[in-house]
Write the structure tokens for this entry.
Amino acid sequence: MEKTYMRTTQYRIAFIISISLNIISIILSIIMIIKDDMFASIASFCVMTFLSLFGWFAFYIERKSKLVLANDSITFYYTVYTKPRTKLTYDFAKGYKINFKDIKKYIVDFHPGDGIIAADTTWYTFILNNETEVTFELYHFGKKQELEIKNSLIDYINK
């Protein structure tokens, strides 16, 4: 059985921000046209549209990022951290696949945040048979999906 987890909250936020900036740019342009200020109209439209590109880029990245749990492997379609540092040998279309039989140790490490800048974060680390450490986080999937993924990983690895 294969289950796919998506980062829905982040891409929805990026979508809303991008659409809002585009709507604001259109409204500002219309207001400036009514006031007979063509330069300000064009400038506001261009600047706001340029700013919305950052949101669209974030939307695209978040929309493509997912995690796939299968009975025998886990595949990451987002960046994970490896030690020793290796070149990026996978692309986001193929993902980074780890077979559960290759995992020697599974570590869950909780890092409390300061409450101002950083939130509480849990880092998950796989130590593979070849001594490579693969570290990743699951907070961007939401608390419900993070708990479900965490419990599924414990079940799959302990089989």
Observations:
- The first helix runs from residue 8 to 34.
- The mean pLDDT is 86.
